Amino acid sequence: MLDIKLIRENPDVVRDALRARQMDDSAVDVLGRLDERRRQILSEVETLKAERNTVSKEIGKMKDADARNAKIAAMREVGDKIKGLDGELREVDAELTSTLATLPNIPSDATPYGVDESENVVLNTVGEMPSFDFEPKAHWDLGPELGIIDFERGVKITGSRFYVLSGAGARLQRALIAYMLDLHMKQGYTEKYTPFMVKQETVFAAGQLPKFADNLYKDHEEDLYMVPTAEVPLTGYHMDEIFDEAELPKAYTAYTPCFRREKMSAGRDVRGIKRGHQFDKVEMYMYVKPEESQAAFEKMVKDAEETVALLGLPYRILQLCTGDLGFGATITYDIEVWAAGCNEWLEVSSVSNVGDFQARRANIRYRPEGSKKNQFVHTLNGSGMGLPRIMIAVMENYQQADGSIVVPEVLRPWMGGVEVISGQ
Which residues are catalytic? Predict the structure, then answer.
């Protein structure tokens, strides 16, 4: 969440940021009026309370009963005014908070301007594209032919955009998750196993509400949300806490299934397992001091790169432009891998520096040494990686002419030594 002081003192910064994101900037004027009215009410209440305190002292010294009763009656009217203003203040506060919650983060100066995803910038491409002496197949053909992906029964069990992984397919997914978690621990992250359902306050703290309410799965009876990403519970993990400076940085990794309605992508990527309402992901998350924020971002990008590179997959790094930047991010690098069967680049990781945007929502601060004033931490998040897209790339890039799939060497310890996935 943005600091209201920023809107009060530098409204044009926020207006420019919204326009750069291709968004309407009228909320800035609304917030300005609400903030001004809030401060007016506080000033009026303070004046009335001061008057009441002064008169109350006078009443205690008055000997004339009639004059004292008149003063008491007048103070009742003052009390009623204060009560009315307090009620209006609550309404203004609620409207101010709800409006403020709709504003995205301010893009970093390093984030390039762009209207939409077509203007994202390719920073680097690494690795050689695979070549075949046969026509490579897409995973939606490879999987069923090998008996490791069952689309029909997934639809039968639940509906469209669901599938079942079987045998070596299920084991390959599990191997990828274990590989990523173990690698991230070597990179300095502490593994967390978090709940897959969280409270509304936790979802709000991570910046998912109110923006993405229509894409979240919710248990209305218990008022709990299924997690759309491990970023949400990892944000909530230190909600309303104050770190000592020496405790920072904190680096976590967690596996969760992720649940999203995908309403915003209706009609897109309907074939295969690339986009579904349920998928698995391993997340990286960091809490850092503001001055360490950029270095932490660079580390997380490097860690995500290593995760792909060790799998032997060609990949590229994109910097998102302002028009494609996520709601809470100030800067984002995406990592995409090449999938030879789909014949396209697939996003498998998105690494973002969120600044203090989530920390303000979640009230996460730290106590700088030698300072009496607590400061908000900066948070960063990154996929390390997202399934099933990384599995799609493994299947399609490591396929052989006979339809089998070579298991990347780094995954074999979690595959029981299986080197090739053949028909089941």
Answer: 260, 275, 347, 350, 389
